Amino acid sequence: MNQPGGPIRFTLTPGFSMARTRRSLEATLAGYRKDGRSVALVPTMGYLHEGHLSLVDTARRHADAVVLSIFVNPLQFAPGEDLERYPRDLERDAELAMDRGANLVFAPSEGEMFPTGRPRIQVDPGELAKRLCGQARPHHFQGVATIVAKLFGLVRPDVAVFGRKDYQQALLIRTMVADLDLGVAVQVAPIMREPDGLAMSSRNAYLGEGEREAAAEIFQALSSADRVFRHGERNAESLRSRVHRHLDETPLLDPEYVELVDPQSLAPLQEAREGAVLAVAVQCGRARLIDNVVLGSPVSDPRLGETDVEPAG
Ligand code: PAF
């Protein structure tokens, strides 16, 4: 469960606040609004890494004040998933967020988030949520969309920033904002990777030594398919099976799916084209890892990742 409120032992930089309750969140936000400052929200489940901190950088470019929320959202975990063992370290997270220039960390307990119990009304994320990760995690995106809608209600941000590693999530949130006129500008920031290519994720903390090495092959498999695409291969099945073979041949990796999909509908493609999304979910020991590449995109230029997830049309 989320950690109960405890004293924060590091020295707070002037201008940085920590809110464990709605009331203190509201008080700090009221100050920003009084000063006419725009607000960006970076929603997270904590155990921050460079990927999250790069979202703070993006947020700072788009708004005057950055709120980073930390809430391990029980609505998006099915029974038997890793809710209880999801890594948590609030004190370290708050210090990292502060040092990176976030203005406010909002880290509510479950009781504070759901004062009258879990929401009776939840967001139905529709068809997009049934694709890719939704096949193995059928209720996951309902939980994500519901908590993000709730965070938007609590923070009322001008801008919200999500990472492209969770491509399906970013697309779903953009689509929810467009369809429900939520009035939040959604920015999608590029994937941050370890030097060997592994996409940064809080769940990488589950990887043992051999597993950590194996996990780096996920990006190698995706990049090799992207390379043959750039050399002219357009057959989706051949790109998919290239990735599948690479993952199958790597000990300790157990692929859940390898799919080449339309970037807006997430429908599987027969023919590969520039901008199509090649996405995988792979089990590696106790960690379920996801990653993706946008075929033919200039992945070496991190700024270009910011606008490449459009709402579903
Ligand atoms: O990407 C995540 O960490 C979560 O799904 C989010 C968006 C914070 C909602 O709980």
Condensed summary:
With 313 residues, this protein is an alpha/beta fold. It has helices at residues 22-34, 50-62, 90-99, 110-113, 133-136, 140-155, 167-179, 209-230, 236-248; strands at 17-19, 39-44, 65-70, 104-106, 159-163, 185-189, 253-261, 277-284, 287-294.
According to CATH, the fold-level topology of the largest domain is Rossmann fold
Main sheet: which strands, in order across?
A: 1-4-3-2-5-6
Radius of gyration from the alpha-carbon trace, in angstroms? 19 Å
Shape: globular
**Integer average pLDDT:** 94
Structural class: alpha/beta
Quaternary state of this entry equals: single chain
Which secondary structure elements does this structure contain, and how are they paired or packed?
Elements: E1 17-19, H1 22-34, E2 39-44, H2 50-62, E3 65-70, H3 90-99, E4 104-106, H4 110-113, H5 133-136, H6 140-155, E5 159-163, H7 167-179, E6 185-189, H8 209-230, H9 236-248, E7 253-261, E8 277-284, E9 287-294
Parallel strand pairs: 1-4, 2-3, 2-5, 3-4, 5-6
Antiparallel strand pairs: 7-8, 8-9
Helix pairs in contact: 6-7, 8-9
This protein binds pantoate.
Task: Tell me about this structure.
The protein is of the alpha/beta class. It folds into two domains: 173 residues, Rossmann fold, CATH 3.40.50; 93 residues, Pantoate-beta-alanine ligase, C-terminal domain (Pantoate--beta-alanine Ligase, Chain: A,domain 2), CATH 3.30.1300. It is built from nine helices and nine strands. It has a six-stranded parallel β-sheet with strand order 1-4-3-2-5-6, sandwiched between helices. It has a three-stranded antiparallel β-sheet with strand order 7-8-9, with helices on one face. A hairpin with a 2-residue loop joins strand 8 and strand 9. Bound molecules: pantoate. Pantoate binds next to strand 2 and helix 6.
